[in-house]
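Researcher: Sequence recovery benchmark, item below. Answer with residues only.
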């Protein structure tokens, strides 16, 4: 009976990872979603010890990881735009005086 429960928990966690990662857009957002789902599932199972708490932890962890990854992607995007202004064809080519 315990083995069936573990298989169901693993299948549910894998399904959550694929479902939530499919909604993400940036590379850090995808990674954050996957790590958040797995970490949330582990914490939820450690706290509650049943399937409901594992799935709840996976959902909450996925949302948190998704938003953290999204903010990292946005920060990287804005830093990239700031570092390379479109002032010339090769903005970082040539000597710097």
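Model:
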């Amino acid at each position: 009976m315990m083995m069936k429960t573990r298989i169901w928990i693993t299948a549910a966690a894998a399904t959550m990872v694929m479902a939530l990662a499919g909604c993400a857009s940036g590379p850090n957002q995808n990674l954050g979603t996957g790590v958040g789902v797995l970490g949330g599932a582990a914490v939820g199972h450690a706290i509650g010890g049943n399937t409901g708490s594992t799935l709840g932890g996976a959902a909450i962890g996925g949302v948190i990881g998704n938003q953290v990854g999204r903010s990292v992607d946005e920060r990287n995007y804005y830093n990239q735009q700031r570092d390379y202004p479109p002032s010339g064809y090769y903005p970082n080519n040539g000597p710097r005086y």
